[in-house]
Design a protein that fits this description.
By secondary structure, the protein is of the alpha/beta class. Helix content is 39%, strand content 15%. The structure holds ligand SAJ.
Length: 437
Amino acid sequence: MTIKQQLLDRLVQRTARVGIVGLGYVGLPLAVEFAEAGFTVIGVDVAREKVDSLNRGESYILDIPTERLKPLVESGKFCATTDYAALADADTVSICVPTPVNRAKEPDMTFVIDSVDAIAKICHDGMLVVLESTAYPGAAAEIILPRLSFNGFRVGENVFVAFSPERIDPANPRFNVRNTPKVIGGVTPACTEVCSALYDAAVDQIVPVSSPTTAEMVKLLENTFRAVNIGLVNELAIMCDLLGVNVWEVIQAAATKPFGFMPFYPGPGVGGHCIPVDPLYLSWKMKTLNYNARFIELAASINMGMPGVVVERITEALNDDAKPVRGSRIVVLGAAYKRDVDDVRESPALEVLHLLRHKGADVVYHDPYVRELRLEDGAVMQSVAYSEALLEGADCVVIVTDHRRIDYQHVVDHTRLVVDTRNVTAALKGRARVARL
Ligand code: SAJ
């Protein structure tokens, strides 16, 4: 029986041991889904406190309740460790580590490279290595194959390599690991077959494609599509303001078109670790091929400029009250990068706070999900308690992230001036004068 067939049999019988590297918002839900499918799952993470929490059966990911994790830990179906050597027993390893950009906005593949180097030390005949972290086109092959081949591994025969982009949407109540189709691009057809057999246990629909680079481009198209369309509506917001037209009304009416249109909405900027970052992986790769990805660059510059637009709106609104920004008490509501999440990575709120502080405003923030944050200049801020007094005492309240937990009727009833960057007060009537994006 071939090595491939042996692995396929273990995957179908759920006797394969599944490894997951990186136990964050992508790796942990995936680990839980595989463990619930019957596999024994070994999770590896460099953060000792995460590993200890998981081994106590306690989840730190909003989408994975502790009561779902605990039985898997108690039954031995899932355990976590900081030691990569534990993967020596694994038949498959899915790499779910961060792939940020550095300060020069270039791909930072350090976490992936460190993971692959560690896996190469324990890799054995019949192992499947899957990269899930978003990467530039060609990255999976470029980074993994050389590090495994020196061991005498022949990809597609005694070791299998694939790219399968993560499609986790934090806080999405409808879509999860199981019901979100999974794209899989193996280095060889055998790699695609083996990887599909693994994910078939955890995902309802597998979407095999012809190569890892194809799969990498699928992911980059998905998120570049969003970044460019968000950039378009952000520019539309600027245009509508110059025209004295309500951009939200324009988009709402355009969205009545039952075909050929998909609404996106302006905002204070584009945060998170996907949309502002992934397209830059593509534009960076294209630069190495002497091609300038203009849509990506333009969308990025418009989106990155939105915090400045928000501060302009605040300045104009305060000016209408004959108040300078300097010395005005400004309350920023919402610091996370999007509503109902606790993640501030690349959040536009950070830049809004930074700009307002730089202009001398007396600025505070309240976010029920974000207790503390650090601005780029190193300043640390804590979320202030929400209260009527906080609103009454503000010269301006700025809604940057529209968490559902905030009562916006209460906000407009107890604030004199609101700058609403999310149109969340559109249908509300209250005491506040409201300025919008
Ligand atoms: N944003 C806008 N206007 C919009 C949509 C989003 O300003 O119309 C802003 C958000 O406020 C946020 C940023 O863009 O700051 C990103 O928002 P997002 O809705 O794209 O949320 P993310 O970053 O969590 O994106 C994830 C992505 N999932 C994966 O990469 C696996 C993305 O592909 C999903 O489409 C997205 O979730 C989703 O649909 O929620």
